[in-house]
């Protein structure tokens, strides 16, 4: 009897496949190649996913025929037609071995890893995206268009912003607000070049979005030394991420706004490790600390589990399969903001807010 549930988180850089029992116990988990259907192609993405799901099943000693359903939260899946097309390709690949597939946007995997009561999912990894799910299931999205249109606030955006800022400064086209020498030297070392003309093959002929995005880590380390230009770029990235959330504000339900602990914002992606550099720009866009803040209360969550858990939950729900999990233990609040207005804040709450400022280790 089929009794295992698979959850897949397919990002722009890696794919995580997790196998669960119906009681929520994780049997196995493997990491594989990116499976965005638009960058890989739908057929190629389905073939990759079959390989990676099979590897995860083998790692847990599970037969494919024992898998009752698969939930997949994939980057690039932005509408119903895309979901159906991907599900069709998966059924073709797996034939009759596995029949139940549910494909959704990767941001949904993060939101449902927090639970099934709604929230805001904010992705800033290789790319960026922001999705609102209200408690009644209504959804609204901002972003997720990819780097050719807009990946504002992502690792790729930060890296390319640094490159463009220095090049424009050297060209005399637009002067940088701070000295460019440290960022320039870091870029030359990372990309193995001696001048900016040599960046052209990296950006065009041998283009790799994930390779360019990985330069963001070097910039974060530079910002950690106090270097001003890299810190300015991260602040700008924080503004961009804040604008994603601000765009969804008109659609957030009263029920979600009034939730104890504030509106939950699930933060997904390595860029949030640099929250201390993003924070000021993010809060400024949302009007925090001003006379008219956009939100009265919100909390930012770092997941303990990968979004493959949320994908598994959605897959089981669609297939009407039992899946039990204690969602109260799937995240930690790393930052909370609350507008006290004219009220004097409670001392206990103030202590909680101070302790939750920063991602920590």
From TrEMBL:
Enzyme class: transferase
EC number per UniProt: 2.7.1.59
UniProt xrefs under Gene3D superfamilies: 3.30.420.40
Alphabetized GO MF terms: N-acetylglucosamine kinase activity
Top-level lineage group: Eukaryota
Residues covered by the ATPase BadF/BadG/BcrA/BcrD type domain: 6-269
Matches recorded under SUPFAM superfamilies: Actin-like ATPase domain
Family named by the database record: Belongs to the eukaryotic-type N-acetylglucosamine kinase family.
Full protein name: N-acetyl-D-glucosamine kinase
Organism: Cyprideis torosa
């Amino acid at each position: 009897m089929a009794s295992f549930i698979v959850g897949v988180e397919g990002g722009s850089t890696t794919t995580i496949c997790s196998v669960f029992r119906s009681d929520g116990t994780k049997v196995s988990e493997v990491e594989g190649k990116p499976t965005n259907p638009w960058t890989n192609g739908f057929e190629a993405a389905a073939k990759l996913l079959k390989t990676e799901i099979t590897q995860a099943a083998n790692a847990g000693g599970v037969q494919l025929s024992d898998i009752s359903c698969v939930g997949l939260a994939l980057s690039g899946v932005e509408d119903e037609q895309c979901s159906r097309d991907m599900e069709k390709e998966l059924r073709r690949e797996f034939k009759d071995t596995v029949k139940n597939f549910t494909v959704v946007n990767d941001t949904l995997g993060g939101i449902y890893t927090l639970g099934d009561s709604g929230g805001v999912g904010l992705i800033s990894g290789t790319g960026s995206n922001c999705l609102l799910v209200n408690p009644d299931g209504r959804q609204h999205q901002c972003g997720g268009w990819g780097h050719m249109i807009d990946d504002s606030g992502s690792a790729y955006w930060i890296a390319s912003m640094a490159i463009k800022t220095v090049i424009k400064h050297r060209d005399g086209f637009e002067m940088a607000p701070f000295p460019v020498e440290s960022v320039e030297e870091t870029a030359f070392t990372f990309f193995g070049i001696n001048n900016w003309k040599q960046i052209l093959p990296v950006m065009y002929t041998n283009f790799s979005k994930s390779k360019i995005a990985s330069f963001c880590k070097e910039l974060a380390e530079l910002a950690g030394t106090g270097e001003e230009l890299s810190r300015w770029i991260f602040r700008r990235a924080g503004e961009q991420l804040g604008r994603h959330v601000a765009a969804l504000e008109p659609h957030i339900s009263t029920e979600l706004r009034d939730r104890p602990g504030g509106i939950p914002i699930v933060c997904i992606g390595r860029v949030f490790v640099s929250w201390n550099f993003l924070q000021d720009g993010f809060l400024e866009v949302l009007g925090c600390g001003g006379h008219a803040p956009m939100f009265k209360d919100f909390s930012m969550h770092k997941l303990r589990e990968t979004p493959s858990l949320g994908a598994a939950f959605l897959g089981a729900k669609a297939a009407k399969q039992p899946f039990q999990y204690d969602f109260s233990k799937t995240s930690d609040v790393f930052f909370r903001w609350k507008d006290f207005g004219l009220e004097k804040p409670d001392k206990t709450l103030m202590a909680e807010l101070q302790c939750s400022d920063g991602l920590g280790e």
